[in-house]
Design a protein that fits this description.
The structure is a single chain. Helices cover 7% and strands 40% of the residues. By secondary structure, it is mostly beta strands. Among the domains are: 175 residues, no CATH class; 78 residues, no CATH class. A 5-stranded mixed β-sheet has the order 5-6-2-1-19, with no helix packed on it. Strands 4-3-7-8-18 form a 5-stranded antiparallel β-sheet, with no helix packed on it.
Length: 380
């Protein structure tokens, strides 16, 4: 959620003028508390992320809010505190839940600012019917399908987590253990295969309100261009589906339209997008965000590279990857370097007639591209 809130920070200057106008920012315009909270009634897990707003001109990430008191309260007056897991993320599991009561979020920051969300009713979410994918000449599109026979769920929100298995451009079989001394890499030292996992950040919401039945057909949740490293070997996406209220849907739509439209002279101007988080004292920073409750459902699929068209399997080395050079086994054989010149940090590929191949980390270390050599527990 915090990735969406830049919208409320700065209005658009008049593009097209010779001298652009950048409106001044009041301190209170950027000192926003950004809240993203959800209580999953299937297992009683509450997760809340707190951060601060920043101006659009700032390239930095949103600063997290640490040391806050965060609790979920039910309609019977019970309070369940959350524990701070890492910067700005709070969580607790095992909250006793019931469909007969409503829930709200209670926040108290280290700056002594207090906030309450509106009470929300838990919503049941239908199962995901299927996740499909299709390709054209340049893009792979992943889509979700669902329905609700009861027609109770009319508004939906999706989030996903994608994981991909890939490999480095060059296999490094050796490691420099001391100046001029090489050893074969052990199994746990291999840096050729990696897995990378990223969460979604886009606002993905849909309403079936205008349909006679609550059906979601082929809603796109992710696009992957041909040539992406995500499709080099094997790709997996875990889609999480949540039924949401009409109010939350309109909040998300307003937020999406504002974030996607800033920049043009004729774009809609940013409005007041706040959600259901209320401050107790007028002098406290405005809170932006939403707290909701209900049961989520999820489904995972895998996509193997060999099942895709040829253009999706052509993965180019990362920029800066150097083609292998040769390190001679001994000086004087026409090589710029010999084994005796090698030091820790040199990336050695394979053995060749003269000695060994030499490259750089961008070519030989898959971790440089953000992954880890340890596969996730769910990987098949």
């Amino acid at each position: 959620m915090r990735n969406y809130i830049t919208i409320l920070i700065c209005l658009v200057g008049l593009s097209g003028c010779l001298d652009p106008y950048f409106p001044p920012l009041r301190p209170e315009a950027v000192n926003l508390l950004v809240v993203d909270g959800f209580l999953d009634t299937s297992d009683g897990t509450a997760s809340v992320t707190l951060s601060r707003g920043v101006p659009l001109t700032e390239p930095n990430e949103f600063p997290s809010v640490k040391g806050a008191f965060v609790a979920v309260e039910d309609g019977y007056g019970n309070s369940y505190p959350l524990q701070e897991k890492d910067s700005g993320r709070y969580q607790v599991t095992g909250i006793p839940t019931s469909g007969n009561t409503n829930y709200r979020l209670h926040l108290f920051t280290s700056d002594h600012d207090e906030y309450y969300s509106d009470f929300v009713a838990p919503l049941a979410t239908p199962e995901i019917d299927s996740i499909t994918y299709a390709t054209d000449s340049r893009m792979l599109t992943i889509r979700v399908n669902t329905h609700d026979d009861t027609n109770q769920a009319r508004y939906f929100r999706w989030a996903f987590e994608e994981t991909w298995n890939y490999h480095a451009a060059i296999l490094s079989m050796f490691i420099v253990v001391a100046p001029g001394q090489l050893e074969s890499r052990k199994y746990d030292e291999m840096i050729f295969y990696c897995w990378n996992t990223k969460p979604s950040h886009d606002i993905l919401a849909f309403s079936s309100e205008r349909l006679s039945r609550s059906i979601v057909s082929q809603f796109p949740v992710q696009y992957i261009p041909a040539g992406s490293i995500k499709l080099q070997m094997r790709y997996s996406i875990l889609v999480k589906q949540t039924a949401i209220s009409k109010d939350e849907y309109h909040y998300l739509e307003q937020l999406r339209k504002t974030t996607e439209s800033i920049g043009g002279l004729f774009d809609p101007q940013p409005g007041s997008v706040t959600g259901n988080i209320n401050r107790e004292q007028k002098g406290s920073p405005v809170a932006v965000g939403y707290f909701s409750a209900g049961r989520s459902t999820e489904k995972r699929i895998y996509i193997d590279a060999f099942t895709l068209p040829k253009e999706f399997r052509e993965i180019y080395p990362p920029a800066g990857c150097l083609q292998p050079d040769t390190v001679c086994g001994s000086p004087g054989n026409g090589c710029a370097l010999s084994v005796s010149d090698l030091r820790e940090g040199h990336m050695i590929g394979t053995a060749v007639t003269k000695g060994f191949t030499l490259t750089n980390a961008l070519c030989a270390d898959c971790r440089v591209q953000g992954g880890t050599t340890t596969p996730p527990d769910f990987w098949e």
